[in-house]
Specification:
Order of helices and strands: HHEHHHEHEHH
Strand content: under 5%
Radius of gyration: 18 Å
Low-confidence stretches: 104-115
Mean pLDDT: 84
Strand order of the largest sheet: 1-2-3
Helix content: 40-55%
CATH class: Alpha Beta
CATH superfamily: SGNH hydrolase
Number of strands: 3
């Protein structure tokens, strides 16, 4: 999710007489987190915030090449105090920008290795599905409505489906299939963005972060799902 735009836009839309109650939207996304880390973090933050809805959006970090070919689930976690500092620092633009630059340099040679015979990614497709199921089940057990949101990707090379695009869409498809399987709402932004190249400023330089128009579009789609869900539950 676009960390600086979509949450604020969604809150504004929902509070424009769309719902009958005041709505607060919290942005709990942490840069660099995969679904493995997100599932752990969810269990910490849900009891504190007690939300009515949770948007689940992962994918990009899951299918980056694993550092030293070690999957996230097999990585040794740093001490909790280090994680606390990272979580707090993640709100800083300077921290996020620095982290992005460092990661891009260290992973650049591995970003386009999707055609390797036996690649190792941070979170495999099977584990990604399992993590989504765990998050959905946890939300439902807490009487929370989860909403699966797929992560869009632009047409990086017009007319050519790059290995990265193909593999990314596999993760998006798993997200939609899992939502259907577990009968929870979903916003397939990845599919919706196909017809909207204007949602990207310069996809060759940044193919992950959509622009303000894209963020507004997603916020509106999420609002539609929430409003429709509210109406169906009142019947």
């Amino acid at each position: 999710m676009n960390r600086t735009l979509t949450p604020e836009q969604l809150e504004r839309i929902l509070n424009q007489d769309v719902l009958q109650t005041k709505v607060d939207v919290f942005n709990c996304g942490i840069p660099g987190y995969s679904s493995f880390q997100g599932w752990k973090f969810m269990q910490e933050v849900i009891p504190i915030l007690k939300p009515s809805y949770v948007t689940i959006c992962y994918g990009w970090n899951d299918h980056w090449a694993a550092g030293f070919d070690i999957e996230d689930k097999k990585q040794q976690s740093p001490p909790q105090w280090v994680l606390d500092i990272q979580n707090a620092a993640s709100e800083s633009y300077l921290y996020r920008a620095t982290k992005y630059l460092l990661l891009s340099k260290s992973e650049k040679s591995r970003e386009y290795t999707y055609n390797r015979e036996s690649p190792t990614y941070r979170v495999s497709l099977d584990d990604y599905r399992d993590n989504l199921r765990s998050m959905i089940n946890y939300c439902l057990s807490q009487n929370i409505r989860p909403i699966i949101l797929t992560a869009p990707i632009p047409d990086i090379e017009p007319g050519v489906d790059t290995p990265m695009e193909v593999y990314h869409m596999l993760y998006c498809q798993i997200g939609i299939f899992t939502a259907e399987e577990m009968n929870v709402p979903a916003v397939d932004a990845a599919a919706m963005f196909v017809e909207h190249p204007e949602f990207w400023d310069d996809p060759k330089k940044d193919f992950i972060h959509y622009n303000a128009k894209g963020a507004e579009f997603i916020a509106n789609e999420l609002a539609k799902v929430i409003v429709q869900d509210q109406k169906s539950r009142q019947r």
